[in-house]
UniProtKB/TrEMBL annotation, chains A, B, C, D:
Cross-referenced SUPFAM superfamilies: Acyl-CoA dehydrogenase C-terminal domain-like (SSF47203), Acyl-CoA dehydrogenase NM domain-like (SSF56645)
Cofactor: FAD
Domain Acyl-CoA dehydrogenase/oxidase N-terminal: 9-134
PANTHER family on file: ACYL-COA DEHYDROGENASE FAMILY MEMBER 11 (PTHR48083:SF13), MEDIUM-CHAIN SPECIFIC ACYL-COA DEHYDROGENASE, MITOCHONDRIAL-RELATED (PTHR48083)
Protein name (Swiss-Prot/TrEMBL): Acryloyl-CoA reductase (NADH)
Family: Belongs to the acyl-CoA dehydrogenase family.
Assembly with partners or alone: Homodimer.
Keyword Oxidoreductase listed: yes
Organism: Zhongshania aliphaticivorans
Length: 406, 406, 406, 406
């Protein structure tokens, strides 16, 4: 057992940390207030990407700080899940960083799907420009009219018709769909309703310009729209794509979804923990700088105990996430079900608790947008629902546990 | 000991409940989506009050459903704090209701101050139009540059100069200041810096049109601006008002603040509990109507236990708030310090927990504005800071407890 | 709504409080160490009741401080459930007090059953000596071989045979059965297995001297046996009693059990809250008297916040219990299901939390028997299981809540 | 980063696990009921060690399953702290196991002290027989009359007098002092009252037979005495030992205490986690085997969610403890302050929570001694106080955290 990062991993951590501090943070300080304000409403069809973001991307790419997430020596950085994890944590401290290093959801998951399961043609057409950071993508899974915590509830359909697949249904929480750079979506729907429960669904590539793809509205998360990416409600009305847009094969949607989720949860959780570290730092700095009743706030009442509990919680969550990553790399995601579900419960809740405590120290400033805390809170709260709500993951862990005594 | 409401109180509860359901809720259903969307950004100087709101106010006033909060038989409804409490709970279920019955913060507290401590001239000029619902008001207390949890940190100044008082300082979280109907503010600042610690501050009436009163910006709460009332950051630069605008007398600001806070906390807490009841109702209805893994969501995992815990928490918080109200009425706010601080901790936390659980049942819809849950969450989270953060109230309770054994 | 106790109730509270402080506490200080030590093991058949206890009983009885629990003007004190509740709280501060005032479980419940449902002959034979404090009693309900949280699991049988009832089965947690004064038990078992689910059981009076009643062992609770009362495992092997020992009628066991449980839970919960107040007092006194790092322990870290939270928790639990009592008196236990289950969850947990915090302040002394904290902890922990575990009560509350929206 | 145990470590884990299951558990099943019952009271001077225990020790020793804790290739097993940790977890599942492998507190800590700081003569006289398992030992630190959470409160004295050291003071919670095999104690007291705050104390070896060493009584923990080891209150009245019994040198007591505590906390925490795993196993097995309302208990209400949360908590605590062990080995205990304090808070609380949940599933049996749960609970609860209460450790973590921003 060894808790040291590999030398290469440690070097990348240092480079990423330095790039964020020196190159990204100044831009973020400049852009974020306008992004948060603009993100709070208005006409999403006018959303723009600031050119400074593309400049930073080019700079990071030139330095080789790019596509860390992909386990491919040529197309990506060739890191293991475990090696990528601390980089994701570093990126989680910043709003912009994941995108700058071409490591932001949902693109990462979509690229992994194409890399693992895409045909050569699909890779050429969509994976390459995504890996180059030229386009962005969206994943159409969650539906507004059913409880999506049970994926078998899905109602959208994919029907063969001649050389085409005809797609119908309503999706929402399609993140990134508002981005002017978003060109391609992966759509999941029922293609084989008569098959076994987990073989009824397929995934299909749908270019955003396909007729019948209608973005009905953008959805706010705690009143913010996360412009310019956004979270859309998208309706599909007799949308036609060629059969070759099917990924892997009809009925293999759940198989693909499983492959997509393991590493993706590591990414989400490590980013959440990076944000939690940032939140703790903010809490301490503010608590040290403001005085009440003759003492810095952080020294009053139970604040130091709360601080200690949050430190303990973050450290435990990080170790569990790293362990889950190690299991994915060494025994596979299927043998790491408990750990993957566990971190999915733990990390977002840790972040939510840290942010709640930091807000409490900040007072009114904490609920405004003068700090990134509200944005972090929205991230945490949404993450407790995304990719399966806490309760579903607890249920899965319990099932594994009970099975040990069968 | 008797837990029945008085017959008059019960009758008013029934009337208020019916008026909310029959008259206010339909208007709210129509106006709220636009209010929430509009409230998320844009130019606050263009905020408008929908005429339907003034129509509802006139209707409620005509029915005598008006000014319940004021313990004055002629000017108000003549109810005790305890009798008003359940009416505040009913109003808390609705976003618009408090205003419709002329029972919304910060007007209620400001009217109480004027009623208790105002001169005859001050009452004529400002209390009467407030009681009639013709104008609205604001309270200038919290400051951006100091920890306001310790009110003695206050830096704003009130200096005598001939027949005038000259006011300088920065205030924020001045709720209601964005409302086009807002005409008058009560400003608290340091007037007697050499006096004893709690005799240094005064409260002064400042008409919003006074030169030097500058609204710098509106502050979002979890990205929403609560239009058209809003929460402002307001700077006072050599603002001059006549000496007769002083309330009660120089150095008596804390005395007034204390008188203002006791009943105000009852109002806040009962409204929070009304919102909590609404949140629980939403949680149950959604949990009954959506199905996953073959069962309504509410029957899955620990959801029923959570539901029970929330029911217990609400019922306990309500009884404690009613008891605090009874103590205020019967032995005075000073003898009810523990209870007033206790409910100020409990009720907002109960609301936050209910809303968090309801969001979890709603899934994605819960973090959007398709439900009032996000608005309720912002209310709860801000209330844990307003009027003293949780920690200050816990500290006060501990002091009282320790004093019992001295 | 009025939170004042009735004058008579207040007078009794004062008398009981004074009697406990002046008469019982000195005896308790003398007897308790030996009781706790002796209770930890040894031969239960040699358990004795100290004559000082009978002397105190006689004294209390002579002063009319007796049988407060019984709503009967002649046989008892004629107090309502609500009026009795604060007396139970006072008694809960002391280990011996409930017995001294003839208000200790399980006698109170058994006396209520006989008073409400017993025949004249049953009352003469058993109720009268119990009311006089001459004998004690036991309730045979819980069984070792089934999950007793579901009362319909019960396996013990009651079979008619000529003029007799023949009883078989195993019971445990039969509290009080080790007391040398214990003469009578109420036994619940299946008498009508073919009847509807809640009409299969009966309750029967079984004198302790009846052949076939075998006390197999006494059960420790956190290693203590609560001598001289004790909690027994008792086996019934072809135990014969005359048919007239049936209470109310065959198949009416659940009906009786329901009648027994409502007020009994009020008693348990108020005693638990009295113990919680005592625990809080101990915590504060110790926290004030010991110094570490230059300050009294109670002023260190989060201790004052914890203290405040416990004060809030106790006050809320008390109000909810009083409200439940008021509902039992005014609308009946069936309409107070939510409240009765709610306090059954809340009060023991509050006590457990208070005791845990007090132990933490006491350090090593807290886990020894140098304080009553360990005994209070055992009381709290057992009470979370007795009369239905927390989870069953939460389930019941949820059912009531869901039924509101059917 | 690598989460695999070393091959040697894994082999030892397997051997220890097998030995516990095959050799220790049958003996434990036979001895434990009598130990628990006997431990509940009676005359401690008659406590005996069952010969089966010495037989098992001899057997383990012969197999080389012995002294795992000592980082010495010759005297001990030569394992690192990290390698020993999983062995401690295995031992924690059993009441007897730590002693059988000569790895039980307080002997392990005392042996470490002698190994690191003892003179050659001290090693010959006391370390060797301890390593051989021939004698046992005790550590005299905590005092009854002061808050021992602040070690500088210590009042016991060590005074030079000619060739002797004269010792006076009261100690309690001296674990193991009741064991008939206990021959030697390490005593900490004030020797240099004029020195700097952390240089005033020394540690001295005191044979149990030295005149003036008086065992006043054994202290129960939740009513049990942990016979035959016991926890004593011991008074020292002019106890004389030769100067050569001083360890390391006058004034170096805190230095020794620090060296003793780091690895000791790893041991305690891993044993606690082993016990937690055992508790979880018991909870699941009972929850599967008992039925209520038509389902196994474990499937009712929120039980599966609780189970999942406990699994998550145990796994996180284990990883954090292993990480702390790794830091001790690689960067030293001083650089692992946060982690050592963190696990000291986390692990006992996890065990307490697991046991509480398991008791709730067991019902009445859970609070009796029909299961080891009560014993585990006492272990957890005492461990939250021993070696510094939770609050002190949280305070230390906060201090380290705040220092990062100085």
């Amino acid at each position: 057992m060894d808790f040291n990062h590999s030398p290469r991993c440690q070097e990348l951590i240092d480079q990423v940390r330095a790039f964020i501090r020196e190159r990204i943070e100044p831009v973020e300080a400049e852009l974020l207030p306008a992004m948060l304000a603009g993100s709070a409403g208005g006409d999403w069809t006018k959303w723009q990407v600031d050119p400074k973001i593309e400049e930073l991307k080019a700079e990071a790419k030139a330095l080789g700080l790019w596509n860390f997430f992909l386990h491919d020596d040529e197309r990506g950085a060739g890191l293991s899940t475990l090696e990528y994890a601390p980089l994701a944590e570093e990126m989680g401290r910043s709003h912009l960083a994941p995108q700058i290093f071409n490591c932001s959801a949902p693109d990462t998951g979509n690229m992994e799907v194409l890399w693992k399961y895409g045909s050569e043609e699909q890779k050429q057409q969509w994976l390459e420009p995504l890996l180059e950071g030229k386009i962005r993508s969206v994943f159409f899974m969650t539906e507004p009219d059913v409880a999506s915590s049970d994926a078998t509830n899905m109602e959208a359909t994919i029907v063969e018709d001649g050389d085409d697949l005809v797609i119908n249904g309503k999706k929402w929480w399609s993140s990134g769909v508002g981005d002017p750079r978003c060109e391609i979506g992966i759509f999941m729907g029922v293609s084989n309703p008569e098959a076994a429960r987990h073989s009824q669904h397929s995934m299909v590539l749908v270019p955003m310009t396909t007729p019948g793809v209608v973005i009905k509205r953008m959805l706010p998360v705690f009143n913010t729209f996360d412009a310019p990416e956004g979270h859309g409600e998208v309706w599909f009305e007799n949308v036609r794509v060629p059969k070759k847009n099917m990924i892997l094969g009809a009925g293999r949607g759940f198989e693909i979804a499983q492959g997509r989720l393991g590493p993706g949860r590591i990414h989400h959780c490590m980013r959440a923990l990076g944000a939690a570290e940032k939140g703790l730092e903010l809490m301490i700095k503010r608590g040290n700088s403001r005085v009440a009743f003759g003492k810095p706030l952080i020294k009053l009442g139970g604040n130091q105990e709360r601080l200690a509990d949050l430190r303990i919680a973050i450290d435990q969550a990080r170790l569990l996430t790293l362990y889950a990553a190690w299991k994915i790399d060494n025994v596979g995601a299927l043998s790491a079900l408990t750990e993957i579900s566990a971190i999915k419960v733990v990390a977002p809740n840790v972040l939510q608790n840290v942010v709640d405590a930091a807000i409490q120290i900040y007072g009114g400033a904490g609920v405004s947008n003068d700090t990134p805390l509200v944005a972090m809170f929205a991230m945490a709260r949404a993450l407790r629902l995304a990719d399966g709500p806490d309760e579903v993951h607890r249920g899965l862990i319990a099932r594994v546990e009970l099975a040990k005594y069968k």
